[in-house]
Amino acid sequence: MTDQTTYRPDALTGNRTLLVIAIILSVVMMAPVAWLVGLSIKDNKELMLGTESVFELPYTLVNYVNIIYSSQAFGWFFNSLVVAIGQTAGVLVLASLAGYAFARLEFPFRRTIFVIVLFGLAVPEQAVIIARHQMFNWFGLHNSFIGLMLPGMSSAFGVFLMTQFFKAIPKEIDEAALLDNASPLRIFWKVLLPLTLPAQATLGIFTFLHAWNDYWWPLISATKKEMFTLTIGIASSQTNFAQSEGLGFLSAQAVFASLPVLIVYVIFQRHIVTAVSGGAVK
Amino acid sequence: MSASIEITNVTKRYGALAVLDDISLSIKAGEFVVFLGPSGCGKSTLLRMIAGLEDVTAGTISVAEQRVDTLPPGKRGVAMVFQSYALYPHMTVAQNMSFGLENIGLPKDEIERRVQQAAATLEIAHLLDRKPQKLSGGQRQRVAIGRAIVKEPKAFLFDEPLSNLDAALRGRTRLELAQLHARLGSTMIFVTHDQVEAMTLADRIVIMHNRKIEQIGTPMEIYRRPASRFVAGFVGSPAMNFVPLRSVAANGRTVTIGASGLGEIHAAFRLPASFSPEGASLGIRAEDITVLPAGQAGIALKAEVVERLGDRTLIYGQLADGTKLTAETDGRSEARGGDTLQIALDTTAIHLFDAAGTAHHSEGD
Question: Which residues of B touch A178 (CB under 8 A)?
Fold first, then answer.
């Protein structure tokens, strides 16, 4: 038996190397974020003279105050929130139902349909964007929340993830519920769906982040300023920042735009690591 | 509540592959029946067909004289305990036990009463608020049984429920299951490949082999009067000795048997005229072979390996012609590997198996 307290020089060196690599990577990844936060709390006039002043006092929250009074950022923020939450909810509902069906139900051409769905992973958005634009135009869906949310709801990745997760749940759980006189809908809702919580949290985060950061489709679909999402709104304000708003204000908007993502990630991260189904089945 | 179960000409096929072939079996109300057989013999499939988790290709299944093979699992009035327990991981023990009762719309106070009663019976009342991952294997096993008990089913179905437990816990749970059966008086069907579980728990054992029922009988009937060479070899540890036959000569009820390495044996048998020694064998259990005291003449057995089990000693050896034979003697035996021992057979405990494997038992047995 291995004594866990035994000193093993190789393992210790390996751990230290990993730690150093992790610290370097963290610095590389966090440096732009720190730079952004630094810029956001500096006066625009100072930054126009040179961004080195980010390392010097004084700092100010005036850029954040200006977001409240002199920008449409709150409106765009609201739009982004509606689109991201709506899209996430849609993906979770559709992917869960589809995953359950592909993993558990018997129906004709199940495998063929599943393969067709998976082809969705291989088709880049750019390849279908013109057709999609035209279709949404016909239906009058541009410049609407539905129009912004709908394309992201068809998540091939989500269906794949949920299918695999449902497949990983032992069939005896369904069978026990069947013997407990539960209907298929009740088995899905009360027994299996709660067990997919870790997958739902993962998928929810991915979808929310994607929807929140999406630039390409809102740029095409939202042409009216009041329907802009944050990404489009911030990008549109970049065009004249040198004359009016300035780098500090723009950075403050970017920090403001990142906050919900950060909050969502912190909340859901706990759910990802909680393996709800662990331990009940051998 | 207990009910009879009637299985009539049941067949199960997956496409062209037959898994069960024309199975018929009557189980009396309150009986504890064990399906015993090697892996892949179809015993779990038969249990799952009774539960409604597998369709019946042909034949009928009735519970309490009501045909159930066309009903969904939840409407058959049976409860099942799975090998993997199959507890709902996100529900507490109490929720696990009450889920089935909620589904049939029982009033809350009745659900509460049944859950508390079952929890008290199984001594898991202190675990009701815990989730399955916080329970040990034995506790999960009890919860799974509790989930079945609260439904007050007409019959309990157990699919190898002890195989995930360690040896000590398995023995204890086996005893508790026997006590539970005595207390509830319910019909129970128990699937296992462990003959000790089968012998100790069953009122009757159903031995299954190659998609068919090989024999149905009480544990001692199965052990002392196996219907076939398969049953004789499958039940009992060590397995029954089989010695090829060379000749059989009947003189009234006394049959003179010539078997490899054993010489001529006289025993009382009622053999059919068609019985031929071609491909036939003599069967005898290790405990029906006596190791004679030194100086007494018998059949020579050269000991190869001696296993001392404390209360008894097993001697694995070979006869003069090289035929392998296992004998059992008491725990104080001083036999060693390499010794040549003298043995005698209890001729009333001899079985003869024809070429097809059908058993013929000594009339003295």
Answer: 52-53, 72-74
